[in-house]
Amino acid sequence: MNHFTARRFWVVLVAPLLIAFVHSAQADYLDRPELQAVIENVAAEGVDRAWATQILADAERKQSILDAIARPAEKTKPWYEYREIFITDKRIQGGVDFAHEHEEALSVVSENTGVPAEVIVAIIGVETFYGRITGSYRVIDALATLAFDYPKRSPFFTGELEHFLVLAYHSGKDPLSLKGSYAGAMGYGQFMPSSYRAYAKAYDGEGAADIWSSPSDAIASVANYFIAHGWEADQPVAVKAHGEGASEGVFNQGLKPKYTVGELAELGVAPLSPTDISVLATPIQFELADGYEYWLGFKNFYAITRYNHSAMYAMSVWQLSQAIAAEL
Length: 328
Known about the structure:
Elements: H1 3-26, H2 33-43, H3 49-57, H4 63-70, H5 79-86, H6 89-101, H7 103-113, H8 117-128, E1 137-138, H9 139-149, H10 154-171, E2 179-180, H11 193-199, H12 215-228, E3 238-242, E4 259-260, H13 261-266, E5 270-271, E6 280-288, E7 291-297, H14 299-305, H15 311-327
Antiparallel strand pairs: 1-2, 3-5, 3-7, 4-6, 6-7
Helix pairs in contact: 2-3, 2-10, 5-15, 6-8, 6-15, 7-12, 8-12, 8-15, 9-10, 10-11, 11-12, 14-15
């Protein structure tokens, strides 16, 4: 076959197949009417329409993402089992090592914000095991899949997709290379795109925060998140309490502190150590293998729950932070 014949063969037979393949790969969402609304919304925030269209053309629908998010939730673990996931010798030592390695950034950020270094480290430890497990999905695939093919939470993920396109465009980051969890959470601290735009902060104060590969930026961003959610420097987080005589309803008041320590003591939940009775607290009951343990969570405990709306999550972060601090 001569050169001309070979070229003609490629044009006639191979090129159409290649074009069809490219079209198939890029047509996951381009024909969806919802996509145009996304493009218009991000264009209103200064994103180039052609750029947004091209990025969305490259987004791929991932069935594994839909399977993961639709999977029936596992049985809720009791506290004594949940705690064992995070309060381990390996995770404590990992936190100590991370704290030593990034001592300067942690010291500077903690001094400037009032958020203890060990609490920042513990968040990163619980979220990604100090950056070891940050997710392997392309963020654009995760968010597009959930925005366009997961009706149950489509409005939320559509908003996150828009936030992601805006942050990528204005920061100059490549949206096709950034990776995260199946839900689109990103970096050391697992920030969703909306949280990134609101709270991510570069350690040196310049440019866009790199929460994917810069531990210093991740440290600054986590601390900034806490400050924005009401963390108070040099204030308590939680204290153990008596609660055996309290009614079950006392512990169903939500995570936000509503009653003073004095009022809660009258309801049967009293601190085990001296505590200002005028401070607001929330009573918490954690299940043990052979009973319960009781705590009072203060405003800073509530701030931790803003990261993940779970008392068990916040207590794991708090106890991990204290275990790390004890080893430093």
